[in-house]
Structure prediction request, 148 residues.
Amino acid sequence: MTTRLVLGDHATQAGDLVLRVGVAEVAALFRRDPPTAGQIEAGIDVVEEAIGAPAAKFAGATLQGEGAQLAAIARAAGVDASREPLTADAVERVFTRLAMAAGGSLPSADALPPGPDFAATLLLLRELMHHLQIGAVKLEPPHSFPPP
Prediction:
């Protein structure tokens, strides 16, 4: 699996960044739901290794993304993705809740969506936004991107 970050409007630009890690690889590290703190750290290590040196071309960028897990992250952040982008700060707040859940200190009223794919997508998105200095992700309606 890979993760592709796209600059511009089309998924075929030469400036795209393709990472050799995807949600499936990170989710495979999560043996509990929610994952343990150690499993989260292992996921961070895998993603950071795939990112390598930060790509300055993404600094401050607003990327476009789609998918059920990104929509779930936006909902968990309280973001109306049809009206506003999902900011790095909003993603960080949801990630903090995941870390609290891993430590057993997240109130049940503040529960996150279950499953390793949600946690893996959140971790991957958080690390990409942090290390590549991505300002926000604008969620697109499903199937709005051209095929790869």
About this structure: The chain has one domain: 3-139. Residues 143-148 have pLDDT under 50 and may be disordered. Strands lie at 3-5, 17-19, 62-65, 86-87, 136-139.
